[in-house]
């Protein structure tokens, strides 16, 4: 079954767009919980490959507020994990109230942690893959300063110069040096990025989510008390990088061990976006985690 149905949901300040992939629950072919796949700032397209490897489950993907098809009407500049969590709460209500299983990537993992802290009854299992929780790191001051510098660069110089700094930070191995912002940066053109400032400041990563996501500190007391099973995932190839270290830090605070997934931060991607991971084996590991 390959049917894909797109729906909209009105939430305060935004119209969310979400997709239901191969609804085997409605067809009576499975009673497994809905599997919700979420990212941020990644939209639903990023989960097409992974969803296609779960055709025995009803899979739902969505575009977070201000990203892709989900246009904002609130005029606000930033989106917090709490705001995304409220959107997810309303989305799960629209899907029947849950409990659902969630695979959450990157900023989506941060938003998933915020959702479980607020509405644990709606989530059976949360797999939080590499949440970039910089505030939890031993080098938090340097890491948050590097994030602040990326945002300042975006505000002053635009997308290309900010993106090369972002690439450098997320790919850095180990603790972020105190002088990271002062180190020479590559030419954006070397990465196929625009070197000229086009004057726009509406990129969802830099304008809406980067600062609020990395600065978020999960409510660990609420997470430990929740009936939800929270599993932290990390990529075998991203060991030592900021998002992987953030995931390890979350697992430590929860008193659990992270599960190692194949490939890297985007290990569930195929080659659609030019940075393929290992979606076949990634899906195998995710199935094992959800079935445990």
What summary fits the major beta sheet? 8 strands, mixed
- How far from one another are the termini? 26 Å
SSE ordering: EEEHEHEHEHHHHEHEH
SS class: alpha/beta
Radius of gyration: 18 Å
Write out the CATH superfamily name of the largest domain. Answer: Alpha/Beta hydrolase fold, catalytic domain
Strand share of the residues?
15-25%
Per CATH, the class of the largest domain reads Alpha Beta
Helix content: 25-40%
What is the tally of beta strands? 8
Per the CATH scheme, the topology name of the largest domain is Rossmann fold
CATH-level-2 architecture of the largest domain:
3-Layer(aba) Sandwich
- Taken from the alpha-carbon principal axes, the silhouette is globular
Number of spatially distinct domains = 2
Strands ordered across the widest β-sheet: 1-2-4-3-5-6-7-8
Which spans of ≥5 residues are poorly predicted at pLDDT below 50?
Answer: none
Count up the helices: 9
**Rounded mean pLDDT score:** 95
Please provide a brief summary of the model.
The chain has helices spanning 48-51, 81-94, 107-118, 140-157, 159-171, 204-214, 220-225, 242-254, 279-291, and strands spanning 4-11, 14-21, 35-38, 59-63, 100-105, 123-129, 229-235, 259-261.
Describe this structure in words.
The chain is α/β, with parallel strands linked by helices and 292 residues long. It has two domains: 4-133 and 216-291, Alpha/Beta hydrolase fold, catalytic domain (Rossmann fold), CATH 3.40.50; 140-210, no CATH class. The protein is built from nine helices and eight strands. It has helices at residues 48-51, 81-94, 107-118, 140-157, 159-171, 204-214, 220-225, 242-254, 279-291; strands at 4-11, 14-21, 35-38, 59-63, 100-105, 123-129, 229-235, 259-261. Strands 1-2-4-3-5-6-7-8 form an eight-stranded mixed beta sheet, sandwiched between helices. β1 and β2 (14-21) form a beta hairpin. It is globular, with a radius of gyration of 18 Å. The mean pLDDT is 95.
């Amino acid at each position: 079954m390959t049917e894909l149905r797109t729906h909209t949901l009105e939430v305060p300040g935004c119209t969310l767009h979400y997709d239901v992939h191969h609804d085997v629950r409605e067809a009576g072919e499975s009673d497994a919980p809905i599997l919700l796949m979420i990212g941020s700032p990644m939209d639903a397209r990023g989960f097409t490959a992974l969803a296609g490897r779960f055709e025995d489950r009803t899979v739902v993907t969505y575009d977070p507020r201000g990203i892709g098809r989900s246009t904002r009407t609130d005029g606000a500049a930033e989106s917090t994990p709490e705001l995304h969590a409220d959107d997810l709460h309303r989305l799960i209500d629209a899907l029947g109230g849950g409990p659902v299983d969630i695979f959450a990537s990157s900023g989506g993992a941060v938003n998933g942690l915020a959702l479980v802290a607020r509405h644990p009854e709606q989530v059976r299992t949360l797999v939080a893959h590499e949440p970039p929780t910089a505030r939890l790191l031993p080098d938090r001051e340097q890491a948050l300063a590097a994030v602040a510098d990326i945002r300042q660069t975006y505000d002053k110089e635009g997308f290309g110069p900010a993106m090369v700094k972002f690439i450098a930070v997320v790919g850095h191995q180990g603790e972020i040096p105190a002088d990271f912002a002062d180190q020479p940066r590559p030419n954006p053109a070397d990465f196929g990025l625009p070197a000229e400032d086009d004057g726009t400041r509406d990129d969802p990563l830099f304008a809406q989510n980067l600062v609020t996501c990395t600065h978020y500190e999960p409510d660990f007391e609420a997470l430990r008390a929740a009936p939800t099973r929270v599993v932290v995932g990390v990529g075998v190839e991203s060991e030592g990088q900021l998002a992987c270290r953030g995931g390890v830090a979350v697992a430590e605070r929860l008193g659990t061990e992270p599960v190692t997934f194949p490939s890297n931060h985007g290990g569930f991607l195929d080659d659609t976006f030019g940075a393929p991971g290992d979606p076949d084996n990634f899906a195998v590991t995710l199935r094992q985690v959800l079935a445990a």
